[in-house]
Amino acid sequence: MNKIEVKGLYKAYSDKGRRINGYDECRLPEGSTVLHDINLSIKRRSFTCFVGPSGCGKSTLLRIMAGFEHPTKGWVFIDGMPVNGPSPRHIFVFQEDGLLPWMTTRENVALGVRDIKDSDERRRRIIEYIELVGLKGFEDHYPHELSGGMRRRAEVARALITNPDILFMDEPFGALDFLTRLQMREEMINVHMMFDTTILFITHDIDEAIQLGDQIVILSERPTNLRADIPLAFPHPRDFTKGGLAALRRDIYFQMGIHTAL
Amino acid sequence: MGEDGGERKNGFMKGALSKCRQADRILPALTVVVIIALWEWVVRIFSISPGVLPPPSRVAAALWGLAKSGVLFDYTVASLFRVTWGYFLAVAAAVPIGMFLGLWPLGRAVFNPIIQFLRPISPLAWIPLAILWLGIGDKPAVFLIFLAVFFPMLVCVMGSVAGIKVTYFRIAQNFGLTGYRLYTKVVLPAALPEIVVGLRITLGTAWLVIVAAEMIAVKSGLGYLIVDARNSLRMDRVIGGMVVIGIIGLALDRIIRRLETLPSVRWKRMQR
Ligand SMILES: Nc1ncnc2c1ncn2[C@@H]1O[C@H](COP(=O)(O)OP(=O)(O)OP(=O)(O)O)[C@@H](O)[C@H]1O
Ligand SMILES: [Mg+2]
């Protein structure tokens, strides 16, 4: 069975901020539809990358799958059960700052291990995960005392420490510089090998998607539909300047509307 | 050599910084001394009658007299007692109610018209009713302070809670923070920086209002001291009372400003 199934998903925002209850898609106001009939299957333990034009509804789609928002129409099933709210088993890494700014790194990471009763065990785990993401020595720093990359890593630590079933990541490295981003990609590949987690990853960087994903989902302009759903069975490390991957990369650029050979 | 230069430069910087800090302390003190001297000088030069503007020396003597008789201490305690009660009761009521309404748009829609209507009415306008309902004494004064603090504080807490980023609530949901944990770990800390600003402003208001209230509703306190002194045409005592009120107001502000340096409050200013 697939881990996540999305069936006939529609999402519309009303202009006046009112929720739209009408199930008849024809009655939705013109231009308010963001997601238009999305159908997706995502395998257990896969790494799925979502790319698409800005404002097409990538974040919206992920938020619905994570249970933070409800679809106007359609269903999301996780393990065969319909999603009806967020779960501590499905951790979301946010597009903008997702650390609680009044808590230190340690306290933020500790949010992920509240169910461990033994306080020594809890402390040990927190230290272990802070070290895993390379933030040793910054346990008692507040988010504003960390760099952008360190904040993302703290958030990743907080997500991983829960040993999540699904990790939703909304452009987690979008605001980072080129080198830090490459480092974080490498760490994501390690994480995916070490942990038994299904990862859904939004990016606007096609190369990032090609390097990371087992599956790449390309979304169209609004009203958003699937433009392509491409499986990638290439081993890591991946060099997208050569061979089949290079051809695939050209193809994806083409689908995104970039026609000249870059 | 380079290290040496760095050291010297560092030492120089430290010297300049500490000088700067000293200046921060000395300059205000100097201003006060100059103003007092000028005041004394003007009164003497133009031989202004002490019934119109007593010189600082007379004010100091009057204050000393009041302090020796114990009246000043008793009145200060009386004023602070009323402010403390009114302030803490109002804050204790406004914070939970404000948090509740801040998270509940429907409740906000229901109660907001009432709150917005009552808020601009000066607490002093309540004096007749306060005396009618609660008699003369501490109770009406405490009630007025309560009114002066409760409404602004309620609006402040409500607004700050309603303005909390939705992302923070999603994080809380995602990590299963519910019930009182949601309040203590997310709602309160997220709103705290703005609540502390409200606490500071309303403490100032409370101190302003108590003096006015004591002029009418009670027979003790620093406000009463001033009215009483005016009735016996003792302008030196009137100004002495004003000076004490100013100093205590300043001290209260200093104390509450400490809250702003707590790490759980500072985060908002440190962002970006
Ligand atoms: N709460 C909302 N009310 C109304 N419209 C909304 C709301 N949230 C999102 N939208 C609209 O939905 C569309 C999709 O938004 P979304 O944030 O999902 O885009 P995105 O694909 O993540 O974009 P980006 O790559 O820039 O992050 C946008 O056009 C936005 O205007
Ligand atoms: Mg987005």
Can you characterise this structure?
The complex is a heterodimer of chains A (262) and B (272). Chain A is an alpha/beta fold. Helices cover 30% and strands 22% of the residues of chain A. Chain A is globular. Chain A starts with a strand and ends in a 7-residue tail after the last helix. Chain B is mainly alpha-helical and 272 residues long. Chain B has 2 domains: 47 residues; 216 residues, MetI-like (MetI-like fold). The structure holds adenosine-5'-triphosphate and magnesium ion.
Blueprint of the fold:
The complex is a heterodimer of chains A (262) and B (272).
Chain A: E1 4-12, E2 33-42, E3 47-51, H1 58-66, E4 73-78, E5 81-82, E6 90-93, H2 105-110, H3 119-132, H4 148-160, E7 166-170, H5 178-194, E8 198-202, H6 206-212, E9 215-219, E10 226-231, H7 243-255
Chain B: H1 2-45, H2 56-69, H3 71-102, H4 105-118, H5 127-134, H6 138-162, H7 166-174, H8 179-217, H9 222-231, H10 235-257, H11 263-270
Helix pairs in contact in B: 2-10, 3-6, 3-8, 3-9, 4-6, 5-6, 6-8, 8-9, 8-10, 8-11, 9-10
Bound molecules: adenosine-5'-triphosphate (ATP) and magnesium ion.
Residues 13, 34, 54-60, 95, 204 of chain A line the site of adenosine-5'-triphosphate (ATP).
- General form of chain A: globular
Q: Name the helicity range of chain A.
A: 25-40%
Count of strand segments of chain A = 10
Largest sheet composition of chain A: 6 strands, mixed
Keywords:
heterodimer, A: 262 residues, alpha/beta, Rossmann fold, 2 domains, six-stranded mixed beta sheet, 7 helices, B: 272 residues, mainly alpha, MetI-like fold, 11 helices, binds magnesium ion
Q: TL;DR of this structure?
A:
The complex is a heterodimer of chains A (262) and B (272). Chain A is α/β, with parallel strands linked by helices. Chain A folds into 2 domains: 4-89 and 164-255, Rossmann fold, CATH 3.40.50.300; 100-163, no CATH class.
